[in-house]
Design brief:
This is Sporulation protein SpoOM. InterPro entries: Spore_0_M (IPR009776). It holds the Pfam family Spo0M. The protein has two domains: 120 residues, Immunoglobulin-like, CATH 2.60.40; 115 residues, no CATH class. The protein contains four helices and 15 strands. The strands form four sheets. A five-stranded mixed β-sheet has the order 2-10-9-5-6, with no helix packed on it. Strands 11-12-13-14-15 form a five-stranded antiparallel β-sheet, covered by helices on one side. The chain is elongated, with a radius of gyration of 24 Å. 26% of the residues are buried.
Length: 255
């Protein structure tokens, strides 16, 4: 019977399983996540080589004129050394995991989750997936609020495959697409904002300012993508008191 149970466990039937319990479901980028991992033994004793915790997000990748949804790791840590778990035994491990400052914000179609994976030789590896809500860091939130304060409405937020020119730590960039309202409605089609890098003291922004077509000359400019201006700028904590005015000045130069 024991041998039969081992065979079943090797394909995931009656094997050990895992359940991760986070302290909460909403975090701010840059925060430390804490919780417990409960490993429950199955019908037979098993050797757990290690446990990994990975923060994943989804992003859109284009290939051969088609769009695919992929996942990418934002952070991955090893949380245990090898150990054995007996049949029916419960083990609980505490953990802490850093959520990087440049973790995508769960706005629009962006999803972020913590995945727990047990590495068991010659067996199906058990896993657990916990979706979380990620809010922007204080500085990133200030930038997004300033853009909204200028009369822009967030229309879409999505992680897309990054080009080689702008690729950083990850294979994607999160794009925030804003629709103009108020005075900007007659001048712009849209404004896109990307956080290229972030720290506690500064963020590097890439802004795509898409002007509205006016007349035949502008129509040709749009066909050649000449109606779009790309602006790269750095915002620091010292800019916060006058942040909205600084962004307004940048946008106004490209109307």
């Amino acid at each position: 019977m024991s041998l039969f149970n081992k065979v079943l466990a090797s394909v995931g039937i009656g094997a050990a399983n895992v359940d991760t319990k986070l302290e909460k479901s909403t975090y701010t980028a840059g925060e430390i996540m804490r919780g417990e991992i409960e490993v429950r033994g199955g019908n037979v004793a098993q050797q757990i080589d290690t446990i990994y915790l990975t923060v994943y997000t989804t992003f859109i990748r284009e290939a051969n004129d088609k769009k695919y949804t992929d996942k990418a790791a934002v952070n991955k840590v090893k949380v245990s050394e090898p150990f054995s778990i007996e049949a029916g035994e419960n083990k609980v491990l505490s953990f802490s995991l850093s959520l990087p400052l440049d973790t995508p914000i769960t706005a629009g179609k962006t999803k972020v989750w913590v995945q727990t994976e047990l590495d068991i030789k010659n067996a199906v590896d058990p896993e657990d997936k916990d979706f979380i809500e990620v809010k922007p860091s204080k500085l990133a939130a200030s930038v997004l609020d300033a853009v909204k304060g200028l009369g822009f409405r967030l229309r879409q937020a999505e992680c897309e495959q990054a080009s080689g020119r702008f690729r950083g730590h990850y294979p994607f960039m999160q794009e925030f697409e804003f629709a103009p309202t108020g005075n900007y409605r007659s001048h712009l089609d849209e404004l896109e904002v990307v956080f290229l890098s972030q720290s506690e003291q500064s963020v590097e922004l890439l802004m795509q300012i898409d002007r509205k077509v006016k007349g035949l000359g502008s129509l040709f400019a749009e066909a050649l993508d000449m109606d779009e201006s790309f602006v790269r700028t750095t915002i620091t904590t010292q800019d916060l008191p006058n942040l909205q005015a600084k962004l307004q000045q940048i946008i106004s130069k490209h109307l």
